[in-house]
Amino acid sequence: MDKTLPDLATAVAGITDGMTVMIGGFGGSGAPIELIHALIDRFLATGHPKNLVVVNNNAGNGHVGLAALIEAGMVAKLICSFPRSADPVVFTERYLAGHIALELVPQGTLAERIRAGGAGIPAFYTPTSFGTDLAKGKPVEVFEGRSYVQERWLKADVALVKAHLGDRLGNLTYRMAGRNFNPLMCMAAATTIVQVSRIVDPGSIDPEAVITPGIFVQGVVEVPNPQQEEDLNRAKAVYPEAAE
Amino acid sequence: MDKTLPDLATAVAGITDGMTVMIGGFGGSGAPIELIHALIDRFLATGHPKNLVVVNNNAGNGHVGLAALIEAGMVAKLICSFPRSADPVVFTERYLAGHIALELVPQGTLAERIRAGGAGIPAFYTPTSFGTDLAKGKPVEVFEGRSYVQERWLKADVALVKAHLGDRLGNLTYRMAGRNFNPLMCMAAATTIVQVSRIVDPGSIDPEAVITPGIFVQGVVEVPNPQQEEDLNRAKAVYPEAAE
Amino acid sequence: MTQKLTPTQMAWRAAQDIADGAYVNLGIGFPEMVAKFQPPGREAIFHTENGILGFGEAPAAGAEDWDLINAGKKAVTIKPGTAFFHHADSFAMVRGGHLDVAILGAYEVAETGDLANWSTGPRGVPAVGGAMDLVHGAKTVAVITDHVTKDGKPKLVQRCSLPLTGVGCVTRIYSSLAVIDIVDGHFVLREKLAAFSVSDLQALTGATLHLDGAVADLDVPAL
Amino acid sequence: MTQKLTPTQMAWRAAQDIADGAYVNLGIGFPEMVAKFQPPGREAIFHTENGILGFGEAPAAGAEDWDLINAGKKAVTIKPGTAFFHHADSFAMVRGGHLDVAILGAYEVAETGDLANWSTGPRGVPAVGGAMDLVHGAKTVAVITDHVTKDGKPKLVQRCSLPLTGVGCVTRIYSSLAVIDIVDGHFVLREKLAAFSVSDLQALTGATLHLDGAVADLDVPAL
Question: Is B125 in Cβ contact with A123 (below 8 Å)?
Fold first, then answer.
């Protein structure tokens, strides 16, 4: 069994129009910038994929990564908890112009819905959002005298994930708070594609320290020294770079 | 902050009659034998605690650990998935005589109910047990054309847990498949008491390798070279040993 | 009935259908033997409910570590690529549809795909373990079972008489006489021992055996 | 109004109530400042939604690691005892009642304990983040807020006019003029700036201030 992929272009080749794509990361930490940019490259070359439904905690920052994906016009709908950032202009303009749909989900509910999708739990109850606008239209049930909102699982066709170490079986570790939504999205997507800083031999990762077991992963591509969204934005980077 | 406890007797001192006690382990792996035996010691000395509701995957094996707890007459009800073992005579006799109640729960549902208790999810839906005797009386709902059973969270007053390394903040690691239900029970109990093979300084456990963050733990007691139920049973051990 | 397959032979036959790289959970008992018969060049990855993926074979006697056991409480080993996880993550793998194959034992299997394998009725101590979870989620839920009971009664039936483990969950049966798929509420005979005719088999089966093209010989080495 | 507390002073006051060893989540913005003012001899453990427990202070400029940030996307550091975990575990800590204290900002707080702090209405881009989760689960859900808006209107009201973050969730308010508990659907005045009388405060508050014994002076250093 060898889940390693030769390059980024191969890694994103299976993503087609209209798919639901989970993208890991919380802001820039744990965001698979190179996978996102490879997807933009494919769109610029072929016109596909487009009309994507993207699941991420945020809505991008600046003009790289998720913001660049939105700016390229590839995203029809965003499911997220916090579409604000230091420089959210790309999403904000499209959203206010009605060019992109938004499903706003409380952050803990978003995480739990994704986990539920991966764990075969079609629905669960949470106190979060009870009595608020975000609970409108959702079933409410009382347990032990307290009211809870029924929330549904969230699954995806593809997850694009950033990890730290990975082996050919798909076992993964993460870097610090770069973990965030990544392990959950691995569980919830039919196809999980992961960029890792280094591919190591099976057994190099302590079995106790595996965060995502390989069963949740379909493809692993090595991206040494991955870019950080924060660094790119401080350098005012734009993707793709304007032609000279 | 220092959650370390001086000895096993102190560790189990707060457990009172009628409490719901989660006990970690799957069979003997990850079973906190020394904490259980300390609880039996207290009962033998004071007559308390009794009428306990115990949550464990199994129902004990031989005459040590959970089996000894049952044999001592301290357990009124057991919530478990698989009350069979190589030598289940202690539970079996009491159950067939009507002296101990049993709530049988599918293993994955048991795990998820405990996690739900720890995660503030009062109920969830699972395909498991739909159409079976174990779903009787439980609400059923159809999602996307498939039927699911509503299951409720499971919480405890106390969890008795076996971990490997622990620090004074309560951060824990486990040993191999000894992990099993232990991290979930840490989450679901009001008071989680953990026996660890070694107490280490904070920072000794890699932050990436912490399995149970200290927020889920209230007490840590060091038990070097803990006993294994399997070894005790192969040696035909009985707890407490008969008086000479 | 003397020519029927042994449990070992049934396990061998089941193993032939497991693809390279498949994620597989083997139930306690007969199904555990499937791991021994992986065809050369294929390597399945075995999952055990109690929190190990990619475990290895049993250790030598005396070399057991009793924190490293499978769901049947037998000692196993680690190998390169093994991962440990807790029970909620383990059953997320099961329930969430991440396993390719689950192979279980059976008291009865109905043509509807219903399975009864956890309780022989109200007497004794009931025990379910992970069986009710395992029948949901895996892409193939297969059963290894004698074709008939010790008394010669069919175990493959129209409707189960014993308490159910799951409804409409079994997709394939490796019996001691045949390989049978469950398709749209029917038993479809795929392979049978050459010594048995279709009508012989039908007489030992509690529901109609349907044919869908040729029935292959169930050809298993002596072992 | 010139004597009102600054945000820094409100943060200082809130910090005085955090016990040694408390698990605390501080909302983005003003509440983050609470961490600076832990009284000597006490050490709280700070949780951030994005998967860190027990993180340390901000690193020096240029020493940031952008995989090591808090919920406000600011760089933090690790210290002995830090633990990392994923978002579902992080919100299990929140929703599951494991935090001792959550401190948030507010647009409005009602005497019922209702909080509005995520949306100023239908215009613009809505964003909720973890606020709706944080208001459930912590034993103390406290708010740091100016007592009145920039226009001088009460932020402590009978019923919120803005979209709710949570119903009946706030237990204590650290305002720029007072410390107020919410008990059984009432504002109960615990402390006030000495320069303000109870009736001064009542005039600036949109619901009745109840008294339950003596009202202490809200005494905060200059900072």
Answer: yes
